[in-house]
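for the writeup, i need someone to sanity check this before i put it in the appendix. the sequnce is what the collaborator sent (i think, or maybe the updated version? ugh). structure was predicted straight from it, no edits. if anything looks off just tell me and ill rerun, i have time this weekend
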Amino acid sequence: MVKITIEQLDVTLGHRRVLDKIDTAFASGTLTGIIGPNGAGKSTLARAMLALVPASGTVRIDGEDVAAMPRGQLARRIAYVPQGQTLHWPLSVERLVGLGRLPHLAPMSRIGDADTAAIERAMARADVLHLRHRVATELSGGERARALFARALAVEAPTLLVDEPLASLDPGHQIDAMVLLRAEAADGALVIAVLHDLTLAARYCDRLLLIDQGRVIADGTAAAVLTAERLRAVYGIDAHVETGGDWPTITTLGRASG
């Protein structure tokens, strides 16, 4: 079991306050979607959880301050897939996934049997075993996304943090990505995903954290968070929210008027 606790988290970049007194917590076995309009502070929150941006307040994982944690230790606790990741080196998929084991290796050490087994498990979970000998830079967008997921899964960290994992994916591959995240949470991982697609977030996430202008606006189930009134106030849209099924579905009607 793992728990991440955030208390009074503030981030100022340049002269702009991007996060303002964020208080929240995340626990194992849940898939939490962080949602909100562009510029709300979603990606900054993800990066602040990894101490990648200067911040005040605290982020703790199992009671330990993330900012004071050695980077290797933190990398073993939280596997991170940033948004817009570009592959520059013509590595095979298997070698790319193997990079996920670096936090576990001492300097100048080699991949061992335990690492090889972890790589195999990660490729199987992300459904890229058949791509293992392909050059990663030559993959399609959906294949590349799965390979990057596999690299993160190879860390075998108790927490998986992904930033906009659905970007540039077609609808089918978006569903595949969400099914993968859902499965990781069902297996006991703490999974946090920055998302834009509200219907997919509502369908697959246990919990939604809605952020606007650096503040938490709503936190709870999709049905509780995604109301027509809140979508109008936060996103500036008129929307029809259908709540008759297993999850809310959102139909955008247009920009809010008046």
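The two ends are 48 Å apart (CA to CA). Residues 171-186 form the longest helix (16 residues).
thx in advance!!
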